[in-house]
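Exercise 7. Given the encoded structure of a 74-residue chain, write a plausible sequence.
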């Protein structure tokens, strides 16, 4: 039996919704991992010698603060 156009559209929308949920879950996991990595960058920014390392860790810490989970930009 052939599917009607409405059934085909519903099937496609369901498939896209499943893909969106899967990607959203992966994005959240990666965002939380980035937050965990953000803490050592802050500590390292204050604990290392050398201006270039301080700048590097400070920039990484700022990037982690901007890309935290739940940020409206996500």
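Solution.
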């Amino acid at each position: 039996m052939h599917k009607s156009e409405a059934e085909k559209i519903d099937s496609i929308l369901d498939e896209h919704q499943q893909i969106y949920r899967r990607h959203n879950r992966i994005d959240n996991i990666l965002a939380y991992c980035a937050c965990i990595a953000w803490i050592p960058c802050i500590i390292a920014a204050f604990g290392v010698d050398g201006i270039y390392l301080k700048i590097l860790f400070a920039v990484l810490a700022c990037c982690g603060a901007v890309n935290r989970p739940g940020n409206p930009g996500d």
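Remark. Residues 40 and 71 are 21 Å apart (CA to CA). Students should compare their own answers with the one above.
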